[in-house]
Each structure stands twice: as structure tokens, then as C-alpha cells.
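Recall that a protein's primary structure is simply its ordered list of amino acids. Everything else, from secondary elements to tertiary packing, is in principle encoded there. The following example makes that idea concrete.
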Amino acid sequence: MGMRRKTTWFLTLATILCTAIGSAVGQEPTPTEDDQVTIIVPKLAGTAESPTSTPGEIQPTATATLRAPIREIVQFEPYQIPTDVNPLTGLRTDPAILDRRPLVIKVSNAPASVRPQAGLGSADVVIEHIVESGLTRLSAVFYGETPERVGSVRSARLIDTDIVRMYDALLAYSGGSQGVRDDIYWYIPYRRIFLDGATTEFVRDWDVAAPHNLYALPAEIWEGAERLGERARPEDIHGNAFRTLPPAGAQESASHVEVKHVSLIAEWFYDAELRQYLRFTDGEMHLDALSGQPLAVENVLVVYAYHELTDIVEDVWNEQVSYGHRISLLQSGDLLLFRDGQVYRGRWSRPSASEQLRFYDQENLPLYLKPGSSWIHIVRLPQQMRSDAEWVRWDDEGLQ
């Protein structure tokens, strides 16, 4: 577990006063000026604070002040979510904001030069899956927040048909192989699909090297959906089960989580003061380019699913052909949930294509997520993994 000792950025947590977490559902502390954590994080250059730096450079000495998230928690039964609660996060939200269709945006995660991406910190759910060469790509689901822009936007994969149908969502992406495009247009109404050919819903940032300089504009996409008659909130969006207090049945402490793909490693470190997991990728703190803040979520999930290699050509490089995967997200499978610095074993279930993934404990009871955002890793079944290059591990070492 020496990866964090090799990380480029120096991270420190200040010792501060924080109010105690409420002892029951619906009783969260009211944050004050003291509810903050100071972290030394890399800072995007080319801003007002560093006008002489080259755009796109990263300066590792800037200080960001993170606050314990301000959450208004509502008590409700599993899957019976009130209309003023975001079903993807379990947080109270203005119903006017929720009167729209969720939006899935396809975001690049490789090469390393695409990080930090813009807007990921505003996503309700991020789904990370493998692509060619053992790298990963992200499907970011937006519903309760509207970031200025999201990207860089890249091509879709077969899994995106499943994700869009789960949330009855809009889809924004940039191209794709013929097999993937055929799949998308077969299953998703074409008026809910936004491609980079649209002039108002996407923008190019010419300070960023192509092809990694395309960004989606969520506000414009929702406006476009309104014009096409596709903005309205889906009738059947149940969400998941949420509870503020950690459920019983945690197997072990897990303040450090490691999800290793063939060519990329994702790490999560639980911060007890922020009450969130902080993301590192390939040993470096993973930021949101819009805010300069570390990516932080309440829930980290690992979904084990069968991966089948298809005959769809996704890439050809130096005469080496890479084929796409079809990932089976129907029926059920094994699951790990990391929340509140603990790990829970369970099962995921999705009986039909129009339903979201639901999560259950080992007694087949609802496995409660913590209200807030979630990051879902879709990984191969253990018997499909390369033992020397793929794994999921955790420990209680935490940040050093």
C-alpha cells in the first residue's frame, strides 16, 4: 500500500473543532465557521492568483479550505423518496430543480493529461468502468446541480446504454464506434441524445490540446431538451435507500480503498472531519478543474459484473486492434460499499433494463447509502481479473 507515499502532492489535515454528528436520522450538525479542514492541494495555474503561470500548469503549493458538507437530511422509507428529495443523493433539493430529466455525460479519464476534469465534483453519481488498454472512462450523472461545464467529453461505450436507461436520462457524448452508436440509437430516443455536432450544447477550449478539449454545457443541454419536449422529470425514478447513521453489519474498517485496473489505480482516503472519501488517481490527488477542490464523495461502491469481449472495434493503434466490452448489469451480483470509513459486503440487483441498480446487504435487506454523492466502480468478476494487475483492497491506514 505504498502508493500514497509516492504521491506528488503534499496533503495535511489541520486539527480543528467540529460539531458532533447527530445521533439519529435527520439530525445533522449545523456547520459553523469552525467546520472546515485546510488541505494543501495542487492549484490550477492561469488564474487570477497566478497570472504569470502557463495555462494548464499545476502548482502544488496552493491551499484550499474545505468545509464539512452542508446537508439537509430527510427521513423516509427505502425507495419511497419525497418529491423534494433528490432520489440520487437522498438530500433535500428544491423540487423545481428536480423537475427535469437526469443527464449522463461521458467524461475521459485517460491519458493523465485530461485530469483534472471539469465538473465531476457536481455529479450526483459517477460510474467508472474499464475501456481499452486497461484504462477507465467515466459516466457522470447530473441531476441536483448544474456545473458551468463538464469534460473533457469523449466517446461513449456499450455500458452507456444501460446507464441512460437506468436513470431514464439524457446522454451527452462525443462520437463512438459504429457498434456503440447502433446500440445507443436502438434503445435511447434520439431526442434525448446530444452529440458534439450540436453548436450550443458543447464548447471547445482551445487552450487545451485536442481531442481532449471538448466540454458539455449542462444548462444548454437541459434547455435543448426543453425545446425537444424531453426535459420533464421521469415518472419512475425511485433512487436508492439512504440513511445518515452507518448501518449495522460493517465487516471491517476501511479508511483507505484501492481499486486497481490494469493500467490505472484509484484510491480513496476517508476523512473523518469532512465525513467523505477523497479520491487519488495514479498516486495524485484528483481535483475538479472548476473548483480546484479534491473530488470527495460519501459513498464508494464496487460492483462486480461479467465483462464479455465483443467484436466491436473501439481503437486501432500501431496495427493493434482493441475491442469493446459488453458489461452485464442485469440480474444481480456481488457488491462492496464503503461509507463512513467502513466496508459492507452485499449484492446489487437490477431485474430489468429500466430499473436502477439497487443494493442489498447479506440478509437481502436494503443496504443504506449515506446521503450525498456516490462513485461506482464497475469491475470484472474476480475470476476474470488478472491477479497481477487487478484487485480491490482496503485497510485502515488512512492518509500519511
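The longest strand covers residues 307-317. Residues 1-65 have pLDDT under 50 and may be disordered.
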